[in-house]
Structures are given as C-alpha cells and as structure tokens.
Amino acid sequence: MASQVFPTKNNLINTQKSLALARLGYDLMDRKRNILVREMMLMIDKANVIQAEISTTYAEAYAALQRAHITLGVCRESAMTVPVDNGLEMDFRSVMGVELPTVSLKPRPPEIYYGLDLTNSQLDEAAFKFEEVKKLTAVLAEVESCVYRLADAIKKTQKRKNALDNVIIPRFKSTVKFITDALEEKDREDFSRLKVIKKQKEDK
Q1: Domain assignment present for 18
Q2: What span, in angstroms and rounded, lies between the C-alpha atoms of 40 and 32?
Q3: 110 in any annotated domain
C-alpha cells in the first residue's frame, strides 16, 4: 500500500487520520468484545442454574407421575384434557449492537382441567410440576439462544479486532513511515539544492 501512495503532505495527513480512526476502532472492538464476553459468562451461569432447576423439577414431576400411574393406572386421557399453551412471546433487546431474544410465557392461573372423581393429588402434583418445567424451559430457551448469539458476535468482533491489529493498523503505520521518510528526503534534497544555489550566487 505504501508504494502506491504518492508522498505528499496531504496524503500524510489523511493517512494519519485513517490510522487514528483504525486505532479508535480497535479500542472500540476490544471494549465491545469484553462487554459481550462478560454478558455471555453471566448468561452461562444463569443457564447452569436453570438447568439444575429443570433437572430437579423434572425428577419430581416424573416421580409424581409414576405414583399417579401406580395408583390410577394410565393417565393418558387425563393428560389429553390439558390445553395447548399458546402464550409464548418473543421480543429482542440490544447489547452492543447484538440483538438478543427475550422469551416470555404469559402466566395462566393454575387450573385442573381433568375430572377430580377419577384422579388424585399425585396427578395434580405431576401436572403442577410439569407446568413449572414449561416455564423454566422458556427461560432456558432465551438464555441459551442469547449465549449462541453472543458467542457468534464475540467471534466476529475478535476477527475484526485481529484484522485491525495485524493488517490495517500496520499497513497505515507503514504508509505513514513511507511518506514521512520520502518527505524528509525531499526536504534534505531541497536544502542541499538551496545551499548549492546560494554558494553559486556568492561565487558570482
């Protein structure tokens, strides 16, 4: 790049400005990466907590369902009475320009949809536990999606940062040095020429 730039003061000023902007971009990319990494680590910690809660709640739900099966037999007909939940909603929030999903599940009042005459409290407990699992799963879906998006954004930010640090900034620095050296050499030649002209005038 340096060899393709004509060594003028104007080009030197423009290249110095470009170098300053590249350094600013590098600082911004570094700051953005750090913020995204911190956000991702918080999300990973949150995901671990939720996964532990889901595992515990699932275990309790299946244990209650097993007890219901033992006391009631197959509970398929009772389970079929529970309506499909269409209350899942998704929106987005921005973190350093990265769009992260926010998932929410509209709360619905606890309700027993099957008849009470042919069921028992074990089935009720299983139903309520699976309802908790559903809510936790919605939260986990949001957190895991955020982690994937943040990881992708961090990777792209790191690539841009590396490009600035290893390619663009060194290229501008090389160009600045090339132009500066050329201008200094030209100044030395002009100074020498002026000295010769002055001496010739004095000799005359």
Answers
A1: yes
A2: 12
A3: no
Q: Which residues form the domain of 49?
A: 7-105+120-203
Residue 1 confidence (pLDDT) = 47
Asked whether residue 85 is assigned to any structural domain, the reply reads yes
CATH number of the domain to which 143 belongs: 1.10.287.3240
Q: Residue 127's closest CA among 115, 140, 116, 113?
A: 113
Residues 6+ apart with CB under 8 A from 129: 57, 58, 60, 61, 64
Q: In this structure, what token pair is assigned to residue 189?
A: 């030649």
Q: Which two tokens stand for residue 128?
A: 């309520």
> How many CB atoms neighbour CB 120 within 10 A?
12
pLDDT digits over 124-134, tens only? Answer: 888 888 888 98
Let me know if 29 is exposed, middle or buried by CB neighbors in 10 A (0-12, 13-18, 19+). buried
d(CA 131, CA 57): 10
Rounded-to-integer distance, Cα 134 and Cα 132, Å: 5
Residue spans of beta strands (DSSP E) within the chain:
88-95, 98-105
- Give residues with Cβ within 8 angstroms of 4, minimum separation 6: none
Task: Give the number of domains in the chain.
Answer: 1
User: The whole model's pTM is what?
Assistant: 0.76
